[in-house]
Design brief:
The protein has 333 residues and is an alpha+beta fold. It folds into 3 domains: 126 residues, Rossmann fold (3-Layer(aba) Sandwich), CATH 3.40.50; 71 residues, Dna Ligase, domain 1, CATH 3.30.1490.20; 86 residues, D-amino Acid Aminotransferase, Chain A, domain 1, CATH 3.30.470. It contains 10 helices and 17 strands. β10 and β11 form a beta hairpin. The N and C termini lie close together (11 Å). The model has no long low-confidence stretch (mean pLDDT 90).
């Protein structure tokens, strides 16, 4: 059986020492069915043409033993070489926004003989928060709103949260209580907010979701790999806040998936498999009945894996590497 050649597409300029890409790539490099790994970063000026759609060549660095965050900036600069992009069996993307749908579509068309983690067209569908409308039975009450009237109508039933369709990291999330909007820092009337600030309302609308009073119990991130939950972490809001994002003052600790979450993911699995999603970060909140439900799905750049591996005696990274290799061979046929 042939060994695998892997191309990793990332952006080292946005990384920290906790970025999971380094740990996953190092685990892949130890696998006996992987021959070569090349890592290419969007932050390199030489790769501007590739990320604008000229996919024939890319500047990439061959994986070396000890590859990590502390060395990556200088090594990307000093050791990347121009390579032809033909002949890669697996394209592993760890790219944060901004990234366009057009780029993802064209990437998939060009690399027709390669396996993707995750499928570019699958990312387009599932990373849009509107995707939650397809799995409403696994979520709190949710709907698409495009006007102030839509927002007021839904908010008559209960307090709601408004989420921009494509933002991430908690950016742009609003809480609506009656006729008031809470940004997490300030409060406005609905009319005042949308007249004062540029918003997604007219162009794309928002996903409106019931605000869950049990938010103080935390947002649990489930790490989903090929149909299984391999790790979990619990993000708690800062005191007096309703936002669980660590970037907005929250905290995070290791956790575990309960039986209800395992059942929920079993129901979700065929939806993600249909879209070619191998890896995802599934965020859950506790509803009014004490059951965790899905509040968000991240399929583009999933964090928390390295931290989860550090907090368990299980070899999560080795498990993921094995799963990635098997998935690639299964897709190649």
């Amino acid at each position: 059986m042939k060994t695998l050649r892997i191309l990793v597409l990332t952006d080292a300029a946005t990384h920290s020492a906790e970025n999971s890409m380094y740990a996953i790539v190092n685990a892949l490099a130890k696998h006996n069915m992987v021959s070569d790994i090349f890592i290419a970063s969007r932050h390199q000026a030489e790769n501007k043409a590739f990320f604008l759609g000229d996919f024939e060549t890319i500047h990439a660095m061959k994986h070396f033993e000890g590859f990590d965050y502390e060395l990556d900036q200088s090594h990307f600069r000093d050791y990347s070489v121009e390579i032809n992009t033909n002949g890669f069996d697996l394209i592993f993307m760890r790219l944060p926004r901004p990234i366009t749908d057009d780029f993802l579509r064209r990437l998939e068309i060009h690399f027709t003989d390669s396996v993707f983690i995750n499928s570019p067209t699958g990312i387009i569908k599932t990373s849009n928060k509107g995707y939650l409308l397809q799995i409403q039975d696994l979520c709190p009450p949710v709907k698409r709103v495009k006007t102030i009237a839509d927002i007021k109508s839904f908010a008559k039933e209960f307090d709601i949260v408004l989420k921009p369709l494509r933002n991430y990291g908690g950016k742009g999330i609003l809480k609506v209580e009656g006729h008031q909007i809470d940004t997490g820092n300030e409060t406005y009337s609905i009319e005042q907010y949308f007249s004062k600030f540029p918003s997604e309302l007219d162009q794309n609308g928002y996903i409106a979701m019931k605000f869950l009073k049990n938010v103080h119990m935390g947002d649990k991130r489930l790490i989903y790999i090929d149909g299984e939950i391999v790790a979990a972490s619990l993000r708690l809001p800062a005191k007096g806040s309703w936002l669980c994002n660590v970037a907005r003052g929250g905290s995070s600790r290791a956790s575990a998936a309960g039986i209800s979450e395992q059942v929920m993911v079993k129901k979700l699995k065929p939806y993600l498999e249909k879209e070619g999603i191998f890896m995802a970060g599934i965020d859950t909140l506790v509803d009014d009945d004490g059951i965790r439900v899905i509040s968000e799905i991240n399929t583009l750049s999933i964090g928390g894996i390295k931290q989860a591996d550090a907090n368990t005696t299980q070899d999560i990274l080795g498990f993921i590497a094995n799963k990635m290799v098997k998935y690639t061979y299964d897709q190649i046929g």
